[in-house]
Amino acid sequence: GDVASFVQTVAAKCKNESEQAEVGGLLVDQLMIEVEIDAMKRILLIFQGALEEKLQAVVDVLLVRCKAKLVKLEKNPVLKPVIDRLHGIEVQETQPEMTTNEEPLDLLGM
């Protein structure tokens, strides 16, 4: 299934913060045993989706139980932007702007 629909299901089904924390705990358990980068990214994207849906109790479990693991995972350039967002750090995904003294590359030789 897709991450957004999973997060929406969690938001709809969890009646309180305790149930949200329980879901967070299950996700943390999976993250702790996962070894594949793609699978870890998917789990972290679920946490990011939970944050966007204001399911803070889900995210809090991750931030409390996985501090050391997150520090290690941050070293991976694929995972770092997602982890930064979970820590509340704004991530720039746009191209850096040119400074005024730079000319754009003329790729067509014109």
Q: Could you give a short description of this structure?
A:
Helix content is 62%, strand content 0%. The chain is mainly α and 110 residues long.
Could you please describe the fold and organization of this structure?
- With 110 residues, this protein is mainly α.
- 62% of the residues lie in helices and 0% in strands.
- It is built from six helices and no strands.
- The protein has helices spanning 3-13, 17-33, 37-52, 56-65, 67-73, 80-86.
- α2 (17-33) packs antiparallel against α3 and α2 crosses α4 (56-65).
- Residues 94-99 have low confidence and may be disordered.
Helix content: 55-70%
By DSSP (H or I, 4+ residues per run), the number of helices equals 6
How much beta, percentage-wise? under 5%
Question: Rg from C-alpha positions?
Answer: 18 Å
What is the approximate shape? globular
Order of helices and strands: HHHHHH
Largest sheet: none
Head-to-tail CA distance between termini: 48 Å
Total strands? 0
- Structural class comes to mainly alpha
- Residue windows where pLDDT falls under 50 for at least 5 positions: 94-99
